[in-house]
Structure prediction request, 246 residues.
Amino acid sequence: MAFAARIELLDQLLRDGQLRRAPAISLRAPRPLSTGIAALDAALGGGLARGQIHEVIGPPGAGGTALLRAALAAATSAGELCALIDPGSSFDPGRGIDLARLLWVRPRDPVQALRAAEIALEARFALVALDLGDVCVLPPPKRPKGVIEVVRFEKKLTSAGASPWARLARRAEKHDGALLLLTRAPQAGTFASATIELERIRAQWEGRHGAPGRFLRGAVAVGAVARHKRMPPSSPLPLALPLVPR
Prediction:
């Protein structure tokens, strides 16, 4: 059968309903979201993968908050809708972030913060930044010996799926959102697809040494992708992170 005849037969089958046209399928995976730092994006395989949790771990002053701000600035500048969950009320909007594309939530405690992040992912925000740098959601430490604690036994035991990180990981995967988590110590564990560790080296000051009124403008830190589910760990990355946006 000639090629033209085959095309005519195909059109006839489509018109008669005996053959249906399949919906177009895009073979291109969604582009990762940039962290705003080229070297870190390369170490992450292109940036923050959508549908995944990314955990940033670092001490105070290491630039973790600045990293969250840089990622929010990059995402909102690219036209993405973002949400910032800030239970410590430590966010300084500054410049570089399109506030018209940012939902800023200040919950009262870590429990509300986790629930707010879950709702933001369900609402299909492209990037949800959860700043737990000043709070902790780890289980409380064991009680010292000699302290009596009343334990109530319940019939229904807590399942492994009750972990807030398991729920957040499922929400991120289902709704194709990236969750960027800032903590001082590991929290999400294996539920995070990538763990970024920061270490502060020195501060960047504005003004003459010894003069009054000097401003802390940033920190020179060393960062590394310590764990990644799809890539090997990175080598140390020198990062210049502004603490106060200009």
